[in-house]
Design a protein that fits this description.
Largest sheet: 4 strands, antiparallel
Helix content: 40-55%
Number of helices: 4
Structural class: alpha+beta
Shape: globular
Mean pLDDT: 85
Number of strands: 4
Number of domains: 2
Low-confidence stretches: 1-11
Distance between the termini: 39 Å
Amino acid sequence: MTFESKKEQTMGNRSRDPRSLAQKDAERRAYAEASGKSVEEIRAIEDALREVPREYLIEQLYGPDHGAFYDAGEDLWIVPDPKHRGPGFGFIAIRSDRSWFGGVVPPGAFQ
């Protein structure tokens, strides 16, 4: 068993995508249409991504010097957003189910 799978086992996969099934299906259909793929192909990709350990996924997407850290309280991996150029801390958060969201923490929020 890998470090990541042990951690997920103890964390109970608490960080799940909060979107409803209808929202997820609508976004999946829109992405499938925009990418020229079928909804089934998009679901297969999502299923395959859930099998990849988050640490490995982060390294493959953001490189070995990604600067990611794990927030045990929220069960999220936080990666600095390499495209963020404005003030504050731009981030991408990856949940245990491999869904993700991004945002910006305003300057001074950590003081």
